[in-house]
Amino acid sequence: MRELTYYVAVTVDGYIAGPRGEFDRFLAEGDHMAPIWASYAGTAPTDLAAAAGLSVADGPFDTVLMGWNTYAVALPEHPDPYRHLRQIVFTRGHEAPAGADGVEFTDRDPVEVVRELKAEEGKGIWLCGGGALASAVRGEIDRLALKRNPMLFGDGIPLFAAGDYAPADFRPTAVTPFDSGVVLEEYVRA
């Protein structure tokens, strides 16, 4: 069975974006980049990876899930951001923009979609963001891979949106600190 991994950059205080959705403060250079890419190849948009000379082949995922706000960050310039992956965007009120031919848009229950994807053959499923989608599928998340950045946002989009749900236990499988200050924390559902 395929696994769902929530792989995302996050601040020390638990935010995946600032109050206005900004994420440009996350460290995009440093000694953490190459080792993390070696483990999570293919997790950059196709054009960005090509511009950086990074191969998107042989990564752990063949499918990426996003909420509309995460997807819309690259619009209108990049309506098909992860062309090397199957892309599914969860939205209830937005239409597919022009040029988004390789992107599936759905208003279906995210849990049902994730369960169907897990039953299919293939590589892992990457939950790219955001916090509301992560909360909706929290019971289906098998692994967490958190690129903990050495900064505080104080407010913004949390790793998981607030909600009334039961606690879930994860156990660490690896914690890798880098000189840049980034710490890659990897967990598996207990």
Q: How would you describe this structure to a colleague?
A:
There is one protein chain. With 190 residues, the chain is an alpha/beta fold. It has one domain (4-189): Dihydrofolate Reductase, subunit A (3-Layer(aba) Sandwich), CATH 3.40.430. Helix content is 18%, strand content 30%. It has helices at residues 33-39, 46-51, 68-72, 110-119, 131-136, and strands at 4-11, 15-17, 61-67, 86-90, 103-106, 124-129, 143-149, 157-158, 170-177, 183-189. The strands form two sheets. An eight-stranded mixed sheet has the order 5-4-3-6-1-7-10-9. The longest helix is centred in the middle third of the chain and has 10 residues, at 110-119. This is Dihydrofolate reductase. Residues 4-184 form the Bacterial bifunctional deaminase-reductase C-terminal domain. InterPro entries: DHFR-like_dom_sf, RibDG_C, Riboflavin_Biosynth_HTPR. GO terms for molecular function: 5-amino-6-(5-phosphoribosylamino)uracil reductase activity.
In short:
The protein has 190 residues and is α/β, with parallel strands linked by helices. It has 5 helices and 10 strands.
Please name the defining characteristics of this protein.
two-stranded antiparallel ribbon; 8-stranded mixed beta sheet; single chain; 5 helices; 190 residues; alpha/beta; Dihydrofolate Reductase, subunit A; 10 strands
